[in-house]
Amino acid sequence: MYLAPRKRPSGDTEAPRGLRSTALGGFLRAVLSFSTVRGVRHCPSHRFMYRDKKVVVVMPAYNAARTLRQTHAEVHDQQMVDSIILVDDGSRDETVSVARSLQGVQVHVHPMNKGYGGNQKTCYRLALEAGADIVIMIHPDYQYTPKLIPAMVSIIGNGLHPCVLGSRILGGYALRGGMPLWRYVSNRCLTLVENFLLGAKLSEYHTGYRAFSREILQKLNLAGNSDDFVFDNQMLAQVLWQGFTIAEVSCPTRYFPEASSINLRRSIRYGLGCLTTALRFRLARMGLLGCNLFPPVDRAGAPVSKTA
Fold first, then answer.
1. I need a surface site. Which of 150, 203, 210, 257 has the fewest CB within 10 A?
2. Contact between residue 251 and residue 173 where contact means Cβ atoms under 8 Å apart
3. How far apart are CA 205 and CA 194, in angstroms?
4. Alpha carbon of 11 to those of 8, 36, 192: distances in Å?
5. Are the beta carbons of 127 and 55 closer than 8 angstroms?
6. How confident is the prediction along the chain (308 residues), in pLDDT tens digits per residue?
7. How many CB atoms lie within 10 A of CB 191?
8. d(C-alpha 167, C-alpha 161), whole Å
9. Which residues contact 204 (CB under 8 A, 6 or more apart)?
10. Cα–Cα distances in Å, from 234 out to 99, 139, 190, 220, 260?
């Protein structure tokens, strides 16, 4: 990443005296004003990757040692990311040691497994604390391609939509990428019911490839959501509840032994949780149910005081 040099304050490294008055001397002073950390140039006047917005990728990791390097390399190849945060959820393999060997990765470790939702809560909290303007969640199992990061960042960075999903359904990539037929049918049926209850028109709600603006993450009450897989679904329902729009981009996907997946029993539990979330959303919208997941909001999406 290119960083424009700034004027040298007192105490900075100087070029040799004989070169001060020459063009070469000016060039050397500019070069020496940078500090090099692990091969990446930095200077105090840091310029963020996209339209002065800080782009942070978060990776909720669990036993991802075999695919982490490949995912990390492809993220860096996009030249669109300022920082990567990996949160390990008590992995039993070498995920943490691999992550710590990678350039530009901030590693946070949960001593005990908190669950997929609990992992994401930490991811988003750390991203906001790091000053992120755009946050992209991608799994380090390389099931989703990081090559879509520029498109997702552009949609949010240009103010088109504050939330972007990488859809496996658009473009017909799911089955071609190896998604089991039973999982595909379940996805389509769940999405049909959820679109009806949530009043949306998404191709799927179950992708693990998502991007959010800082505004969304600051506004949603994620702490009250589940620590399990249904966290994903609850979060999207909250986004719609607050009146935010959601964009989708067609995403090639890969299903292979190293890619993370949940078994049939947990899939059934997840599906029931999705339906419960959507039903609670509809009842809350009709004024028949009050819950912390969907607090009263006005037409502009602002919270409504209970005493109002």
1. 257
2. yes
3. 8
4. 8, 17, 64
5. no
6. 333 444 444 444 444 444 344 444 444 344 333 333 333 333 334 567 799 999 999 999 999 999 999 999 999 999 999 999 999 999 999 999 999 999 999 999 999 999 999 999 999 999 999 999 999 999 999 999 999 999 999 999 999 999 999 999 998 888 888 888 988 999 999 999 999 999 999 999 999 999 999 999 999 999 999 999 999 999 999 999 999 999 999 999 887 665 556 778 888 999 999 999 999 999 999 999 888 899 987 655 555 544 43
7. 20
8. 15
9. 165, 167, 168, 169, 187, 191
10. 29, 18, 14, 10, 20
The domain ranges of the chain are 1-47, 55-285
CA distance 61 to 91: 8
What token pair was written down for 102? 């990678």
Crossing angle for the helix pair 231-241 and 116-129, nearest 10 degrees? 50
User: How would you classify the pairing of strands 35-37 and 83-88?
Assistant: unpaired
Q: What share of the chain is helix, strand, coil (3-state, %, to 5)?
A: 40, 15, 45
CA atoms within 13 A on the CB side of 18: 0
Residue 142 carries which side chain, given as an amino acid letter? Y
Cα separation, 117 vs 126, whole angstroms: 14
pTM of the model: 0.81
Q: Say which CATH topology domain 55-285 has.
A: Spore Coat Polysaccharide Biosynthesis Protein SpsA; Chain A (3.90.550)
Distance of CA 185 to the CA centre of its chain: 26
- Tell me phi and psi for residue 222, to 5 degrees: -75, -25
List Cα–Cα distances, 10 to 6, 32, 125, 209, 281, in angstroms: 12, 13, 37, 46, 60
Between CA 143 and CA 71 the distance in angstroms is: 9
